[in-house]
Amino acid sequence: MKTILFIEDESTLQKTVGQILEQEGYEIKGALDGETGLALAKREKPDLILLDLILPKLDGFEVLKGLKQDEATRSIPVIILTNLESSADVERALDLGASTYLVKANYELEEVVAKIKDILK
Amino acid sequence: MAFRKFYQQLNFVKQCRRYGLGLWQCPSFLVILIGLITIGAMLGIYFIANQYAQEPEIVALIILGVTAVLMIIGYFIIQGFNQLAEVSQMKSEFVSVASHQLRTPLSSLKWSLNLILSGRLKGFQEQEAQLKMMAETNQRMIDLVNDLLDVSRIEQGEMGLRPEKIDLLKLLNDLIGEYASLAQASNVDLEFEAEKNLPEVSADPRRIKLVIQNLIDNAIRYITGGGRVKIRLRRQNNFIRCEVNDNGVGIPKNEQKYIFHKFFRSQNIMKYQTEGTGLGLFIARAIIKASGGKIGFKSREGKGSIFWFELPIK
């Protein structure tokens, strides 16, 4: 079973996305802040990481940097799932190595699931 | 029509009030003032020059003096424009911050609805749990919109405070209980120390609660990797003083003067780690001032901050 790590401080959103992904047959790990998320990523080595950008303790950009600096986590695809959408933020995240950048408000839940399935295929 | 528009522009008092600027900061007034001084100076110099045609130094001195006055007024005009520009920039920043803040709960609600409507939630309990989370999210949006409404009330000078006798000690005890779980999750020790037998104060309990929530919330959120928040309540002369002391990231010196400004958010390292509208402290200050009290802070970057307020004993 493939594992997805979801780093997101909004717990409702985390549970909502988590439920639907579990139904799709994935194992979901959740972290509510950047520090815990990064540590969990290093320990669990998930197949995919969903990452918010505004996060307590360690923001999403720093988490992304940490993931890409570590040999063990470098190749894990990261989907940014956020509501920030200034081109500077998008560019910065993609430069740091994010695979995809999704603005939450612009997508239906099923579309996000489809993107995730597509990357994990 | 054109004349009326011209007249309206001349009516600087109304215009300055609309922009929320004092007369001496208001370009519309200052430009007219410069015009009047220039005309007056021209006429004055003409007569003086006629009288003192043999002593051009006097005429030159007067012209110099008038020019200096005009330059000073010009300086005020530039400052007025700067202030207007700053306000406008803060407003557009606010629109982006506020819409982002609303979008976070809104997108969460949207995906929850997506999930419920998809028919994937089979059991009643699953649906109920989802609806409960949605209700909380919805409440957060209401709180946010209430903050925005508070701001417009503050600006129109209609806070509508409902003062009653309140026991700050009890209020603080209740609030600190509410923050226990956030503090624990953030690795923050929440300490509370209060003098005994403090008299009651007269203030609007709902608003004062909001002030204290803002201070404690900020104190906890702007601590990285654990720390402590110490809250003290004591009597100082005819006031009850409440202090919230944290050992968090602190406020950079060059930003300290803006900290109570509407929509202001520090550019410190926490910008991407916390969400906020930059309204909390603005609202807090308005509430404390309208309650006859005082509010202030001391902060050192990297060391932490102390925010305090005082309410008069009645």
From TrEMBL, chain A:
The keyword Phosphoprotein applies. Residues 3-119 form the Response regulatory domain. InterPro entries: Bact_response_regulator, CheY-like_superfamily, Sig_transdc_resp-reg_receiver. The modification 4-aspartylphosphate is found at residue 52. PROSITE patterns: RESPONSE_REGULATORY. It comes from the Bacteria. Keywords: Phosphoprotein. GO terms for biological process: phosphorelay signal transduction system. PANTHER family: CHEY SUBFAMILY (PTHR44591:SF23), STRESS RESPONSE REGULATOR PROTEIN 1 (PTHR44591). This is Response regulatory domain-containing protein. It comes from Candidatus Portnoybacteria bacterium RIFCSPHIGHO2_12_FULL_38_9.
From TrEMBL, chain B:
Pfam families: HATPase_c (PF02518), HisKA (PF00512). It catalyses: ATP + protein L-histidine = ADP + protein N-phospho-L-histidine. It is an enzyme of class 2 (transferase). Keywords: ATP-binding, Cell membrane, Kinase, Membrane, Nucleotide-binding, Phosphoprotein, Transferase, Transmembrane, Transmembrane helix, Two-component regulatory system. Signal peptide: none annotated. The keyword Phosphoprotein applies. It comes from Candidatus Portnoybacteria bacterium RIFCSPHIGHO2_12_FULL_38_9. SUPFAM superfamilies: ATPase domain of HSP90 chaperone/DNA topoisomerase II/histidine kinase, Homodimeric domain of signal transducing histidine kinase. GO terms for cellular component: plasma membrane. Residues 97-314 form the Histidine kinase domain. InterPro entries: HATPase_C_sf (IPR036890), HATPase_dom (IPR003594), His_kinase_dom (IPR005467), HisK_dim/P_dom (IPR003661), HisK_dim/P_sf (IPR036097), Sensor_HK_Regulatory (IPR050736), Sig_transdc_His_kin-like_C (IPR004358). This is histidine kinase.
